[in-house]
Design a protein that fits this description.
With 266 residues, this protein is α/β, with parallel strands linked by helices. It is 35% helix and 18% strand. The termini are far apart.
């Protein structure tokens, strides 16, 4: 049986709260089952504990502390009433390194059967808006992207807020953080990926050949893709615009491009 004793908690400093606490059944259970993101402590209502006792007991054996607490305590921890009976304290998000690409055998682009989809990577250059970033990650998960690469600077970071906004996409593929996106993109090319950048070029995406392993480069809404990164790209493509506006935000662009890549590959 879970311990009933409730610890005393210090109030989090402004901003720190969002980095450490994850709540909501879908978000927490996905994090627990995926095993990518370390969970230190779980706080649940008696009802949630009884409904998921086997899972919680397994996690206790792995070293996760668990306490059964009141709804009021969960609301204090999550600072919202929308906790759904479960709150977790998690570590800082565990970014991967480029080595993971070789470990997961994404490297050498082989000739595959025509009905087999090739791998896709997404390189994100300076998306600073957290919800836009989360939407891009959600698109990546839906399109079956193998990994995402981001920079360290001028880039939204993975937090529990991103985890919730992306509907848990952060648990479904490696997210690689690199201090040098140009060097990372160079490595990706060496591994056999074709670099495709989204820009306002004359070549529309439907006319590009995207049937090989592709690394899609997406820029932020406030910044164009870094010129040195753009120079590395094998092709630049645009999304045809039929209205008066001439651009889409990063998440919408990512969704359109990713599904065009998948359409061609299938």
């Amino acid at each position: 049986m879970a311990r009933q004793q409730v610890k005393k908690f210090r109030k989090s400093a402004p901003g720190k709260h969002q980095l450490n606490w994850l709540w909501g059944r879908e978000s927490v259970f996905e994090t627990l089952t995926a095993g990518r993101w370390r969970v230190y402590e779980l706080y649940v209502t008696a009802e949630v504990f009884e409904q998921n006792a086997d899972l919680f007991k397994d996690k206790q054996k792995e070293g996760v502390e668990l306490e059964v607490v009141s709804n009021a305590k969960l609301e204090e921890l999550a600072q919202t009433s929308d906790h759904q009976g479960i709150v977790a304290r998690v570590s800082k998000y565990p970014y991967q390194t480029l080595d993971i690409l070789e470990q997961t055998q994404l490297a050498e682009a082989e000739t595959l059967e025509s009905n087999t989809m090739q791998p896709i990577l997404v390189i994100i250059d300076r998306i600073q808006d957290a919800f836009n970033f989360a939407s891009v990650l959600r698109c990546c998960q839906s399109a079956g992207v193998q990994a995402v690469i981001t920079g360290e600077f001028c880039q939204a970071q993975i937090t529990t807020q991103i985890a919730r906004a992306s509907l848990g996409a952060v648990n479904h593929f490696p997210i690689i953080q690199s201090p040098d996106l140009v060097a990372a993109a160079t490595k990706v090319k060496e591994l056999g990926f074709k670099l495709i950048a989204v820009s306002q070029t004359s070549q529309v995406v439907c006319d590009a050949s995207l049937k090989t392993p592709v690394a899609l480069v997406i820029g932020g809404d406030m910044h164009a893709i870094d010129p040195d990164l753009l120079l590395l790209c094998d092709e630049q493509v645009s999304i045809p615009m039929l209205g008066q506006k001439t651009s889409l935000n990063s998440a919408v662009s990512a969704g359109i491009l990713l599904y065009e890549i998948r359409r061609q590959q299938r």
